[in-house]
Design a protein that fits this description.
Helices cover about 20% and strands about 35% of the residues. It has about 325 residues and is α+β, with helices and mostly antiparallel strands. It starts with 7 loop residues before the first helix and ends in a 10-residue tail after the last strand.
Length: about 325
């Protein structure tokens, strides 16, 4: 039987794209290696920031995926609020360690320095003065599960810490208010949530139980001229956009002050409550969460009592 003749030209051409790919990988690898700053560059940049750092400074990386590198070298300088800020209150300056030309702000920085591939910039922000951070004070709050006939106090206890994970929300803190051991998601406490934009947010987990509220009450809260309130759902659930809304109601001295209705797709939603008439005074502030259908409502909120740096009424009273 006759055998088909081989085509040596075709066989040779088969190897051309393979060889080209190998050359491309070698060149690309060298380019990538050259674009990644050395450990010495990162260490020098970190030392520069550390020597000038102040307690009200925030430190971040650009692009965002270098944040773990920045935290590895400077994380001991950051509080949880500064590492996962719910808002800009209390942040006086922003330090940024960036590579590959990335930057997070367009305006010229107040200070900048280059360290062989790592660019350090500092901006002066001088935003609102932080008067009270509710997430930091959650251990002193009263938490209740409100029913039709009576309210049950949720005890603060040291319970088993849960790591969170896929579709389970953020890490469960060891110290938290446990409202119903049979419903392990029904607790209240401070954690860090990833919002719809994958930004970390320091906040208070307050998963609704249903139409009857989960209630958190803070007493003797010092007030500035505004309350900044934010709320969001863990991104793994919210991105599906197939569950009902959550309502967060804010009460000040037994009067409803505002309501935040959060629907999937809203991301890290915000509202601002004017408290200028109570500036310099203390008040009882209550937060209640409800949902017609509480299924997978992995809701977390933050609130800050803030004062404009020009506000002085009540400061010396």
């Amino acid at each position: 039987m006759a055998r088909a003749a081989r085509n040596p030209g075709l066989a040779a051409w088969v190897w051309v794209p393979i060889a080209a790919l190998a050359v491309f990988e070698l060149v690309a690898h060298s380019t990538i290696e050259a674009a990644i700053p050395s450990d010495a560059s990162w260490e020098a940049a970190a030392a520069f920031v550390r020597a000038r750092h102040r307690p009200a400074d925030r430190i971040a990386g650009a692009p965002a995926w270098v944040d773990p590198i920045v935290r590895q070298r400077l994380g001991d300088l950051l509080s949880l609020r500064m590492a996962a800020p719910p808002d800009s209150a209390g942040i006086d300056r922003l330090w940024e360690l960036s590579i590959r030309g990335a930057r997070s702000r367009d305006e010229p920085p107040a200070l900048e320095q280059e360290f062989d591939g790592v660019h350090v910039r500092m901006w002066t922000l001088l935003g609102d003065e932080l008067v009270y951070d509710f997430a930091e004070e959650i251990a002193g709050a009263k938490v209740e599960l409100v029913g039709a006939d009576r309210s049950e106090v949720c005890p603060l206890m040291a319970a088993r810490q849960m790591p969170g994970g896929l579709e389970r929300g953020p890490m469960t803190p060891r110290e938290r208010f446990v409202c119903d051991p049979r419903r392990p998601w029904l607790w209240v406490g401070a954690t860090v949530l990833s919002d719809l934009d994958l930004e970390p947010r320091r906040c208070i987990w307050q998963h609704p139980a249903g139409r009857d509220p989960v209630r958190v009450t803070f007493t003797e809260v010092p007030l500035g001229d505004r309350l900044l309130v934010h709320g969001g759902i863990d991104y793994q659930i919210e991105r599906r956009r197939n569950h009902g809304p959550v309502t967060l109601r804010v009460w000040i001295n037994e009067r409803i002050a505002a309501e935040l209705l959060h629907e999937d797709g809203d991301g890290w939603a915000s509202l601002e409550i004017d408290t200028s008439e109570l500036l310099g005074q203390t008040a009882t502030v209550r937060f209640e969460t409800t949902a017609d259908d509480p299924t997978a409502r992995l809701f977390c909120w933050s609130a800050s009592s803030v004062r404009n740096r020009g506000s002085s009424r009540g400061r010396d009273e």
